[in-house]
Design goal:
By secondary structure, the chain is α+β, with helices and mostly antiparallel strands. The chain has helices at 2-7, 32-48, 56-62, 73-86, 97-103, 115-122, 154-168, 264-277; strands at 9-16, 19-26, 69-70, 130-133, 138-141, 173-178, 181-186, 196-201, 210-216, 219-225, 230-233, 236-239, 254-261, 291-298, 303-307, 313-315. The protein folds into 2 domains: 2-30 and 172-315, ApbE-like domains (T-fold), CATH 3.10.520.10; 51-148, T-fold, CATH 1.10.3980.10. 28% of the residues lie in helices and 28% in strands. Pfam families: ApbE.
Length: 316
């Protein structure tokens, strides 16, 4: 049964969400489910992107300081989650877009801004200035110049929706890879226990050279790190993960945090929480049944692995 499932494999690759998408299903599955998955990704990208002039999120941003904008239920739900998480002040902030555009790290025109400009942009990142109306699913950014940017959680949200689509279509096993946001659906056909093998890499090593490997149940693994986009200016290295408190790249010895959890959006949120914490948080995840664990990779390639309630297994 396991060998049969592994041998029946369909894969489709596309480019969306600013990254390479690889979708793989195993078992007796109609190719249409992959086509529907790609169509779903494209739909969400059209709704959520801030890298195109027209989208639901851009409509909200363009109306900042003017009026509320009604959006689709899925966009409203994601914005609401993003704003609620921003209120917790642990490092994630969905309103930091103006600051990201000021630094432009990883994009043409990247520079180190002056403190006056940083302060002005920070003033636009207050989540208290977002009015969410559940009755008509509208969003109002009350201050001119405010901008929502859901890039910090959108891929996780979309991966979870593809997983739901696959489950509804009877997919027995599969892997959703949205540019490094990985979600494992069903049970792995490669192991009798159905667990999935995941490696955690060091940014300084070649691809495929893992610092550690774990087995995990169906769920997601997402990494956030300082190595993804950088700016080198006057001999100083600036990464793209900006602190909503200072407006500067966070000072840290952590090069990457990988979260393992049931849902990919949870991984997205918790990578930010632990990255900004800079080290394992005592008791983290122990009161939840959807979090499996975390791996911290430091600048010297040492690793801290946090396993919550034996939900991960370290492969020695």
């Amino acid at each position: 049964m396991i060998n049969n499932l592994a041998s029946q494999k369909l894969t489709k690759t596309t480019h969306a969400l600013g990254t390479r998408i690889v979708l793989t299903v195993m078992g007796e599955t109609d190719e249409k489910v992959l086509d529907d998955s790609i169509a779903l990704i494209q739909l969400y990208e059209q709704q959520l992107t801030v890298n195109a002039p027209i989208s639901e999120v851009m409509a909200v941003n363009n109306a900042s300081g003017k009026h509320a904008v009604q959006v689709s239920p899925s966009t409203f739900a994601l914005i609401k989650t993003a704003v609620e998480q921003s209120h917790q002040h642990f490092g994630f902030n969905a309103l930091i877009g103006p600051l990201v555009k000021l630094w432009k790290i990883g994009f043409a025109g990247a520079n180190v801004p002056n403190e006056t400009d940083i302060s002005k942009r920070l003033a636009l990142s207050n989540g208290a200035n977002v009015i969410l109306n559940d009755a008509d699913q509208s969003v109002y950014l009350t201050e001119p110049g405010m901008e929502l940017d859901l890039g910090g959680i959108a891929k996780g949200y979309i991966a979870d929706r593809i997983r739901d689509l696959w489950r509804a279509n009877g997919v027995q096993a599969g892997i959703i890879n949205l540019g490094g946001n990985v979600e494992f659906v069903g049970t792995s056909p490669k192991r009798d226990n159905g667990q999935w093998l995941v490696g955690v890499q060091a940014p300084t090593k070649a691809r495929g050279e893992d610092l550690l490997t774990v087995l995990m149940p169906a769920g997601s693994a997402v990494t956030s790190g300082t190595y993804e986009r950088v700016l080198v200016k006057n001999g100083h290295r600036y990464h793209h993960l900006l602190s909503p408190e200072t407006g500067h790249p966070l000072q840290t010895h952590v090069s990457g945090v990988t979260i393992f959890a049931r849902d990919s959006i949870t991984c997205e949120i918790e990578t930010k929480r632990l990255f900004f914490a800079g080290k394992p948080i005592p008791g983290w995840g122990e009161d939840r049944d959807d979090i499996y664990g975390a791996a911290f990779v430091y600048d010297d390639d040492t690793v801290d692995l946090v396993i919550v309630h034996h939900r991960l297994k370290l492969i020695e």
